[in-house]
Queue: 2 jobs
Job 1
Amino acid sequence: MSCPPEWTVGAYVDQGLAPSDVRSIEAHLVGCERCRGLVLALREEARALGELLAGETEPAAAPIEVVAPARGAALGLPVAIAATALATAVASALYESRVPMAWFSPSSLLGVNEMLFDTVFLIRDRAAGWFELGLALGVLGGLAAIATFLAGALVRRYAGTAALLASIGWAFALAGAPAEALPRLHHQEAVRIASGETYEGTLAASCETLEIEGRVVGDVLAFCERVSVRGEVDGNLFVLAREIELDGTVTGAVIGGGENVRLEGSVGGTAYLGGERVTVSPGAQVARDAILGGERLRFDGEVARDLAVGGERVEVDGTVGRDVEAWGERVSLLDGARIGGDLRAHLPEADRLELAAGAVVAGVTDVDVADPFRHTMWSRYRDGRFYAWAALGFVASFLIGMVVYALAPRAFAGRLATGRDFFVSLGVGFAVLVLTPIALVLVALTVVGIPAALIGLALWGIGLYLGAIVVAALIGRSLVGGRGEGARDFGLCLFVGLAVVVLVKHLPFVGSAAGWVIALVGVGLLVLELYGAWQGSRKVRAMA
Amino acid sequence: MGARPAPEPSAEVVVRAAEGDRAAFADLYGAYADDVARLCRRLLGPGGEAEDARSEAFLRAQQALASYDRGRPFRSWLLAIAAHHCLDRLRRRQVEGRLFDAAELSELDLPVAGPTPLGLALARERREQLHGALDALPPRQRAPLVLRYFAELPYETIADLLGVTSRDVGVLLYRAKARLRKGLNEGDSR
């Protein structure tokens, strides 16, 4: 009998033969030394292969992904809330003991506004250069990357096409001068729209002085040492400057902040003004509402609708079409004050409101002595509107959560498996909370950055809002059990979780602290998830 | 360096996991994650896909746990699920969609006298080179090796997974080993 083929012997060694074949092979092995040797060698080989395949150095297994979620929330949440509550308790005890802490109020810190502006302008002057350099490098890098990609992807097969595309690309690059491709950055000393001159489109300026004597048809975004508008702005005015003087006309809204803010002209929309000293002079007219905040406020002008003022020292000597709402250490209505509606003053003590003999208030005068603790902590629970708002907030959060789940279920993929996860997320969330505004200010310092910063600010706010919903879903999942997948299961988890979150957020005393902790953890989870997705996509691209 | 496969889990853990106990399933995961990862890595090659495949394999195993036959070794059952998933992925990669073509399995074009099997066993110390030779095999030759000598699946299971007969499994294994030995020899002469 001839020897069986090697694959049959191999199958015998691997116990992969039918019983009848096993019997015939064994009969052959008795008389064939060569095949017995082959069996031994194959056995040895099989063992070697097993070791070889098993003994590979692999990266350690990733953390378990199927454990029950939200154990971390269960561990971390009470600790974090208790810590925040303790801090709040200490702070409020200090406040109630009337320890002189006036120095702690930012507005009374001597020269703090000036210092702030000095710093901001210093960074602005430097950052502009950095930003332009960065932008130029980015554009160059991008072009280089595109060129490399085109070369890499096309040269192999379509050398001709590649050459054509490359030359078209270069033609474009050479034809459009780079300076014109980039947005115009006004970093001059002074920008001036002279009298009789008309500027069409959005005017964005970051400069020492901006003077508008002529006409701007479009919005004005300004970040300057000094801004003065004596002409006309047919649009909105967004301005941050040390000195702001508005003598001319703005047809839209005015949103302005600075050290010294003076309004003497007319505003077609609502005026939001804030600064160390805000003055609305006798000739000034605001067609809608005026909302003013600052250390010293003086209102002598005319506002068609409501006036809301908040500051340490508030003086009103002008005309208000409807109601006045005033917060302050001291509020005075002088002889020229004419209030068409009610006056509500929020003051530390009732006698801080001074009403001159000639002042006229057509409606009711109401002084609200603000005792922030006794007043806000319990009284809101007696108000039906509080529950209505809470319910509305719940419904809105639920609907938004479901929409986000439908659009991007990945947003809810984060898990808090351990207490450590919880505090990592909290830390990341806190970093995002603090660092984002700083980054946004830096971006906004360069003129083109203002819209980017506004978008960033909106995203930041949305992130904080979504954060709470993400954590609510996690909490719901841990309470309801199950995987929380599919719109129905997820909806149930979200419903339960949101109910818990809304309840916790409205608890007296610890509620706001808990709300912040929840939002921050959620933001942290979102950011980590985004980072993970980004890393993942990078890996995929690296493999391709 | 889990050179040795994990021991069989206790029947109780498997039953509890099948009943939906997450902690029990997490235990199973902890015990077999490395083995499954290695299998996926071996079948699919290096890269992020193996990682995905492992997660997916556990997900499928969790869903299929209710139908697990406790007479079978758990490790084989789990690795067969993972292998099934990985082979699906491999088939998707292949343009023709067929990994193992029956026409190729003719005994006639088997390599004649290949180098002796002992060469491979003796080369055990030269891990790097062996790994290189293994990675150089096309997936369809590597798959039977991995399924037999790492997952330790019986021939019938491998045959089911690959969509061939038990007899073909022997042929495929022989061919893969012959190629591996050859690759090793070429490495020697270089």
Job 2
Amino acid sequence: MRSARRAAGPWWLALVLTLVFLGPLHGQEPADGWRTFEGTWSAVGRRQTVPTETGRPSVVTALSGTVTITSAAGLAAGFRAEVIGFDDGAGGGAGRAVWTDSRGDQVFTALKGEPVETGRRVLGTLTGGTGRYAGITGEYALTWQYVVRGEEEVVQGRAVDLKGRFRRAEAPR
Amino acid sequence: MTAKQRRRAITRTATLALGLIVWFVPPPDGLTVPAWRLFAIFATAIVSVVVDVFPILTASVFAVAAAVLTGLLTPAKAYAGFANSTILLIVLAFLVARSVVKSGLGTRVGHVIVSLFGRSTLGLSYSIFLVDGIIAPAFPSNTARSGVLYPLAFSLAEAGGARPGEEGRRRLGSFLMFSGIVSLSLSSGLWLTAMAANPIGGEVAKALGVQIGFGSWLLASSLPTLAAMVLMPPFLYWKIAPELKATPEAPTAARRALAALGPLKREEKIVLAAFVGMVALWASAATLGLDSTAVAFLGLGVLLATGVLTLQDIAKEGDVLATFIWFAVLYTLSSQLNELGFMGFLGERLAQSLGGLPALLAGLVLIVAYVLLHYVFVSQTAHMLALFGVFLDVGVKLGVPAAPFAFQLLFATNYFSGITPQGSSANLLFAGSGFLTQGELYRLGALTTALSTVLYLVVGTPWLLLVAR
């Protein structure tokens, strides 16, 4: 490319980004020790498969992405989410996920359910956390709205019906 | 220090300061510190290129150095783009294109096209759109298609007397090169099978209740895309104003030049055979399960083994190395932003912020935002995968008709590819031709993408409401 001269800047992009960062989050007051939350989960990553005697492949999936909380009190508006999952090809799937918020505080999750595919359901158990999520317990479920494969064996998926509940160790029972 | 140097120093300092401010600002709720800081590095690199603080190569190498030295990315992740097959394909296509020019085949093809369409410079641009539009459905890789189109555009520029280094006739080359970029962005949207991300987008749309097939895609895309293909060459002609305009004598001169060239030489025959073989394999790559990059390696091997290309020829292609480095770096940084959750966060939060808007306005804002966000992506497929489903879902929930909206977003996934030179790997051959300055690439990219957006919204929306249900 030849040397440059001044070009028009993408100032409209700044407007879009401002909209993004000013986006609202609706909180919900806790009714008892349990608090509910809802959100979406976007994930990108890779899958490795090996064939099994069942005809279904055994799958290892590693995903990272974003959990956006659309309704909750006591949780951050969003987390970076990392997942490692294993499906044995015979109907048993298990995995672990960790959600990390902007302060670096983490929520740990055990997963079980079906492979990461369109329309499949996953159940999660909140098993603990760090920082402001220390002692957190709870559960959630989600269904993958879509999971598609891109270039270089990348998979990308999104779940829109992430719903669950949580409570902290010190919360009244 | 001259006023120009002083201005440049101030702009450079301001850009760096902006990057540092973003770096040290706490991340918005929902983003981790590494994702936010990587965005600070990526945004600083892109802004520094857009405001002409650094050439794109310089900005990219600083960016990757900063990302690794600050511990944001591991070396393995940061350099992953250098092993990406699409990026390797670009390098190989550059080298193969060199053989077309060197052997004289490019000049011959240029004369043939000038003899058919060469009565005006505008006609040459239309010939690029025509060839591309016809071959596009057979090429799921628009990067591979750029490898076919680029030698054609370059040969046309040379046949018209344009040389990268000669300012007096450069704009003819700029016009034809940017015609190639825009043509690829439109032809990819005309056919379902003309770009790898289109069928994947169809899968996502299906999961959200919108059925898209080859025929329905072509019907939906036909009117807005053909309108854009008709209007874009005169628009570029107006903005670039090539020195050479009407050339009524050019077809006759081209026919005379062709006669003088005589029959095909040995090198031309080899290049022609290699090229035809590569085109055939690229076109059937999906059916036969072939890797497009391996096909290009095979073609390059043939050209080297037959002596049509030599190691000295390859050693002269320094621009290829520069393109390889900056694109691989930006591609990796953008991919890592996606993996760190930044792109998903951006889409989800933008979508949330639109709650309560009327359907028409929400649809419009979502489409414009979807196009503008391509400034932070270095792959059309990655952009589509990260944001298409989110935007479609939110739009439909706000009352935007699903099928027309899905098509609008999928067409945008194609026509926004020229918004920046790094917006698609299919741009790189043209961007690296030497005919286009960095400033021209960003300015023309913004203008043509804006025009495409308007055309698809104004012409496409009523059409889609009629034919897409």
